[in-house]
Design a protein that fits this description.
Rossmann fold, 14 helices, binds adenosine-5'-triphosphate, binds magnesium ion
């Protein structure tokens, strides 16, 4: 945890920026800094991608360079424009701007094809006609070298002819592939004649039916970087073993620009999954309500939940860029949004599980307008008027008929403060035939307007409240961790179960009939508030006029800050 406590204000210093700084100083790449964020449009972006976005755009920004948004759309069967659109929305929302540099690997198909012919002509690529299974069998293992394909010695002319006919659509899927001719005995399996092109008669979301051969990621990626003049190609650690192939492609294709790849640790968060395949499974099997379900670790889910772009960028800065994998506590992400919203979110009062308190000595029909501070952290936010009247909603669990020792809130005969209003005393508990509490009666002390007693007497609790005659009614969604265990992936593997069996059945609780300050009914979707004593809440797009729906972003209890303080971090 300590290394996740870097002060957000400190300018980021990390090994990647050191490399870039040295390159700029030495005039490498002509002093230019060009990075790219290269998502494959086969899913929505998640918080791990946010880290990559912050690194790619952040490094470019720090050195006066540029960052391209490049869609790595080389797998037609898994990709979709819905994903392209969501990715653009999410990157923009995070606060980054790619200007006019929106690129697609599919825009380079012709150029990539020409590079491939060049490799064939040089004798460093060949058409293999083994089946996928046979290729796998020939590949060898970590301890045994692979074996050459019988087609490895095909001549240049035959290879060119076959490759052109592959492109022309003469062959069925899986009958031939183009492979790099490198070294079947390489200790690095990625270098054992990797496949560069495969035949796939599939419709592509951008190129339509123009192509029936598609380049592999490991081939398309370095060459797309080179075509764009990328200087520093930043990616996650799982690509370390692919770097020799990255360099091989650049070298053999003899590209004008020579980008270099650098790898940093991916972001791992506890209590969630981050593989796009698994997120897609959660959506497809309806374990969640879409990619933007507020329990998802997706950017769209976090946005709907009420996270701010600032809090996510702050989180990414604190997590930092390192070479060692670790797991970050979800509590840190929540801490970041609390800090941000504490500064910015206006306060409001809302009663989630209402219980009526009737003040029997308060004049019937009287309404007072209490002055309430909108945000104690932000004097510029000003004050507002909140109605007070004879019947008040308070929180059901702020009352106990027979309170244990440590319960200081309302109880029979006890006086508490209604925040910004009066001191009130409970005088009577009204029950229904079954004995359930349906209402409280009490009295207020008219001399305590604003909440303080002139005689200086103290009360031990301050409650939030809403005037019953004025309250709006709405729904509130409370969220908990999506999974019951810290490491859903690892636990599922260990127990031999599907990870979806570890979903927390209590991850969503919907409360209807919540009583809200009237102004909350008019707030637009996306507006955030602190509900006094309850946490931060955000208006959900499911709201309709007169029927607001709020998502709880986080409660007020900051577990991460406590842990960090205890560890002296
Ligand atoms: P897959 O390739 O399995 O579909 P992916 O998460 O790697 O999933 P990409 O679209 O290839 O998806 O990722 C785009 C960029 O985001 C890549 O540069 C990748 O390294 C980076 N990235 C993905 N996941 C993380 C993560 N958890 N932390 C940091 N960066 C990540
Ligand atoms: Mg990837």
């Amino acid at each position: 945890m300590p290394d996740a406590n870097v002060k957000a204000e400190a300018p980021p210093q990390d090994f990647i920026r050191e490399i870039v700084r040295a390159d700029v100083a030495a005039g490498r790449h002509g002093g230019r800094v060009v990075t790219r964020f290269p998502p494959e449009p086969n899913g929505y972006l998640h918080i791990g991608h946010a880290k990559a976005v912050c690194v790619d755009f952040g490094v470019a920004d720090d050195f006066g360079g540029t960052c391209n948004l490049r869609f790595d759309d080389t797998n037609p069967v898994k990709e979709d424009v819905e994903y392209v659109d969501s990715i653009k929305e999410d990157v923009r929302w995070l606060g980054f701007d790619w200007g006019d540099r929106e690129f697609y690997a599919s825009d380079y198909y012709e150029q990539l094809y020409r590079y491939a012919e060049h490799l064939i002509e040089k004798g460093v690529a060949y058409v293999d006609s083994l089946s996928a299974d046979e290729i796998r069998e020939h590949r060898g293992t970590l301890t045994e070298p692979g074996q050459d394909s019988p087609f490895r010695s095909r001549g240049v002319e035959e290879n060119l002819d076959l490759f052109r006919r592959m492109r022309a659509g003469e062959f069925a899927d899986g009958t031939h592939v183009l492979r790099a001719k490198i070294d079947m005995a390489s200790p690095n399996i990625n270098m054992r004649d990797p496949v560069l092109y495969r035949i796939r008669h599939a419709h592509h979301h951008r190129t339509g039916d123009e192509w029936c051969i598609y380049p592999m990621y490991d081939y398309a990626h370095p060459l797309s970087d080179a075509i764009e003049g990328v200087t520093h190609s930043l990616c996650t650690l799982e690509y370390v073993d692919h770097r020799p192939l990255y360099d091989w492609c650049i070298e053999q294709a003899e590209t004008e620009h020579q980008p270099k790849q650098y790898e940093f640790a991916r972001l791992n968060l506890n209590y969630t999954v981050m593989s796009k395949r698994k997120l897609l499974q959660l959506v497809a099997q309806e374990h969640v309500d879409g990619w933007d379900d507020p329990r998802m670790p997706t950017i769209s889910g976090l946005r709907r939940r009420g996270f701010t772009p600032e809090s996510i960028r702050d989180f990414c800065t604190r997590v930092g860029v390192a070479k060692k994998e670790n797991v970050i506590d979800m509590g840190l992400l929540e801490h970041c949004v609390r800090e941000d919203l504490n500064r910015r979110a206006p306060r409001a009062m809302a009663v989630l599980r209402p219980l009526k308190l009737v003040l029997t000595n308060y004049p019937e029909g009287q309404v007072e307008h209490m002055d309430v501070v909108n945000n104690p952290e932000d004097p510029a936010a000003g004050t507002r008027k909140v109605e007070f009247s004879r019947e008040i909603w308070i929180e059901r669990d702020d009352f106990m008929e027979d309170p244990p020792k440590k319960f200081f809130r309302l109880a029979p005969g006890r006086e508490v403060r209604l925040r910004n209003a009066y001191l009130v005393t409970c005088t009577e508990v009204v029950k229904d035939a079954s004995g359930a509490i349906v209402e409280l009666r009490g009295t207020y002390d008219p001399a305590t307007r604003g909440g303080d007693a002139p005689d200086g007497r103290k009360v031990k609790a301050t409650l939030h409240w809403v005037s019953a005659a004025h309250a709006a009614t709405g729904a509130v969604r409370l969220y908990d961790r999506l999974f019951t265990v810290e490491d859903p992936d690892g636990t599922a593997t260990k127990r031999g179960v599907d990870f979806t069996t570890l979903i927390n059945p209590a991850s969503l609780e919907v409360l209807e009939g919540c009583k809200l300050e009237p102004m909350l009914a008019e707030a637009r979707p996306g507006t955030r508030f602190q509900f006094e004593r309850l946490g931060y809440f955000c208006v959900d797009p499911d709201s309709s006029p007169g029927a607001p729906v709020f998502n709880r972003t986080v409660s007020l209890k900051d577990t991460w800050a406590k842990v960090a303080a205890r560890e002296g971090a």
